[in-house]
Design brief:
Elements lengths: L6 H11 L30 E2 L22 H6 L2 E2 L2 E2 L4 H14 L3 E5 L5 H13 L5 E6 L14 E5 L10 H6 L4 E5 L5 H8 L8 E4 L8 H12 L2 E4 H4 L13 E4 L1
Parallel strand pairs: 4-5, 4-7, 5-6, 7-8
Antiparallel strand pairs: 1-9, 2-3, 8-10, 9-10
Amino acid sequence: MKLASGYEDFWKAAHKNYPDQIRSGGLLDQGMFDGISSVVNADHSDRFAKPSERGWRTHIHPWTFPFWSSSKKLGALALTYKGLITIKTPFDLLLYTRLIWELQPRTILELGSFQGGSGLWFADQMSVLCEKPGEVHSFDVQTKCRHENAKHSLLSFHQVDLSDVSTFDKDLLTRLPHPWIVIDDAHVQIFSIFSYLRDFLVSGDYYVIEDDPIRADKEIIDGLHLVEQSGFLIDTYYTDAFGRNVTCAPNAWLRKS
């Protein structure tokens, strides 16, 4: 098959400079564009940054481009999985897929369940991508929104008032295996919940705060100072994969040191 003009030269150069194309990882990992060095190693020195060292500039707002018009907005907010609402951008779905494959989490904690669509998606992703599938636990005070089709052998729902951390089952959190990914999509006292859950996380665990960091107001800035003081760093591989902070969690893909 003859490649279009330009692509043939590109692939010739790629195979010459990177003969091991059968290895796993995306093009960013293989350093094929703009001299980007490999970041597949989770301890890569240039990959992690302190919140205080990061600005809030973004090339594209994930909820405003290309979705945010009277017609396209509805399409973005109607993103579904197996018929259930997920309310996740395409950017972030791809990023979570990559993180699950890279981290091989044993536990995913989701704060905010809604219909259960995203919890179901996380469970399916874990069952496919993890060599040793673990557990997905989704927490919400509302249970009436949960759809009857949000069922999976790896998925459990818990009725928890996220405005009151004492309603968490401490024994459950203590016994859940690591690594963890915590996803806060509840928008309820986000840093109070973080302050509670951080003590259950260990080195290498991830904590992702969705949507609220887009505001970048005083509450968010002060909260990320707390995150930094707690020993968490921003994983810029995930915040900047599609452009600086093109994610619904800008500066908030956080890894515990």
